[in-house]
Each structure stands twice: as C-alpha cells, then as structure tokens.
TrEMBL record:
Pfam families: AP_endonuc_2 (PF01261). It comes from Youngiibacter multivorans. SUPFAM superfamilies: Xylose isomerase-like. This is Sugar phosphate isomerase/epimerase. Keywords: Isomerase. Residues 23-262 form the Xylose isomerase-like TIM barrel domain. One of its GO terms (molecular function) is isomerase activity. The keyword Isomerase applies.
Length: 269
C-alpha cells in the first residue's frame, strides 16, 4: 500500500490547498500528497505554478486529488449547465494529470445534492450522464475517477459504498471507480462486509480517519478498525490510502498516523 494525506483538511493558508504543510508531510515519511482540485483550479496561473514548484521542491508527489467540483456548481436539479461543467472538468482534470494525479475523488456533496422537490431518480440519472461524459476526459489525462459515498449529513445522493459501486456500474466507464471512506462508512453504519462483497475490481482509493472527531488515527483501540482492514485484505486491495482528517497538531499527528497505517494495514495484504 501507499499512504498519503489530504492537506486541505489541515490547511491554514489563504488558498486552501494546505501546501504549506508539504515539507512536514515529506519529513513524516508519507508516500504522496492528496491536494484539493477545486482549490487548485481556481488559483491564477502564477499562484498555481508556485504551488507546483513547492510540490516539486518537496520531493513528494501528488498522486491523488479530492474536492473535484466547487461547492457553487450544480450537478443535479433544474439549473444544471452542462457546457460549464464540462469546460471546468476539461481544465481541472488536465491540471490534475499535469501534476501526476492518478485518482480524482468525486464526492462534491454540495454540488451533487439533489434540490428539495426535485425527483431523486432524475438527479441520479443526471450524475450517471455526467460521469459518462467525464469518463473519456479522465482517460486522456491518465486519471481514474473515484466516486466517494458521503454521509447523509453532507449529501442526499450516494451515501453507501454499495450505492457507489452501483453508480459506477450504471456509468460503465473505463475510468470510473469507487472510493471507500472509513469515516463515512462508520457514520452511516455500513458493514465493512460490503467492501468485501462489492469492492474487488471497483475500489480504487481509500480515505481514513478516526471517526470520533474525524481526526488522525493512531491506535486500534479508537475504533473497530480490524473488520475494515480485513475487508481490504480480503479483496487484495494494495492501492492508495489517504488520511483525510483534521488535526490541531499536524507535526505530531502525521508521523503517528503513518506508523498506525504501516503497523496495521499492511500486515495482511
């Protein structure tokens, strides 16, 4: 497995990327960084180049991006502007590919939230149709789109891993896969067995956090992690795992979380 960290979750800078923590992440020993794509895309060319240069200088690669769409976008409902969405996707995925990202996480809860009074099945179909159009854009940039099921408090569409897999199957794209986030899985009380039952061939990325507070995980006593880790092992998952969590002491939490991952997630795979 390769272990990374979503720096936007610990961002203190004005741009929201978290790039100010890149050197600390490298020192902690992580394999890669996960940066927020919407935040990268909205930067000016010079601002984005400064982020890229700092990334290069750090010696750690950006292998994944989260935050695919800005909160202001409408992906479902009566106000969808497909030309605008696809224009953004072309630019954003080109940026992600240019910095080396192999996976882009499609959670985007506010953007894909089905508006009140709008038919849920129609909103679902809009997302299916959108991902069918995004699939070749991702492919030409060497990227897999990782559908992220989110807890109901963040979105009313695609809340479980099983639903995420079904969405990927309905899209049927070569570059559309699924992410599992332990925090969301736990909050929605979905069994890790669903990962074992549906994950083989579909799972392309993992997010991890201690679900109590959504903070950096450090100990097996914090949560019932073992069934989840066993499920990943059961499908032979050996890909990327990103810590997507908050921290008030990143310099101390980062190496502790990495040790936790290496001690407990790689032993059975």
């Amino acid at each position: 497995m390769r272990f990374g960290c979503c720096l936007n979750m610990v961002s203190t800078g004005a741009d929201g990327t978290g790039i100010e923590n890149i050197e600390t992440l490298k020192e902690a020993g992580f394999d890669y960084v996960e940066l927020p794509l919407a935040e990268l895309t909205r930067l000016t060319d010079s601002e984005r180049e400064a982020v890229i240069e700092r990334l290069k200088a750090s010696g750690i690669s950006c292998e994944a991006c989260n935050n695919m769409f800005p909160k202001t976008f409408r992906l479902t409902g009566p106000d969808v502007r497909m030309d605008e969405i696809l224009s953004y996707a072309e630019k954003a995925l080109a940026i992600a590919g240019s910095i080396g990202a192999k996976s882009v996480v499609f959670g985007s809860g506010p953007a894909k939230m089905v508006p009140e009074g709008f038919p849920m099945d129609e909103g679902y179909r809009q997302v299916v149709d959108l991902l069918k159009l995004i699939d070749p854009i991702a492919g030409k940039n060497g990227i897999k789109i990782a559908i992220e099921p989110l807890r109901k408090a963040e979105c009313n569409l695609i809340n479980t891993f099983e639903e995420g897999v079904r969405l990927a199957e309905d899209v049927g794209g070569e570059n559309i896969r699924v992410l599992v986030d332990y925090y969301h899985l736990t909050v929605e009380d979905e069994s890790p067995e669903k990962v074992k039952n549906y994950g083989r061939g579909a799972l392309v990325h993992v997010h991890m956090a201690n679900p109590t507070g959504r903070i950096f995980p450090k100990s097996m006593d914090e949560s019932d992690y073992r069934p989840f880790f066993d499920a990943l092992s059961g499908i032979g998952y050996d890909g990327r795992v990103s810590c997507e969590a908050y921290s008030e002491g990143f310099r101390e939490d980062a190496p502790a979380a990495l040790k936790f991952f290496r001690d407990n997630m790689t032993q059975e795979v």
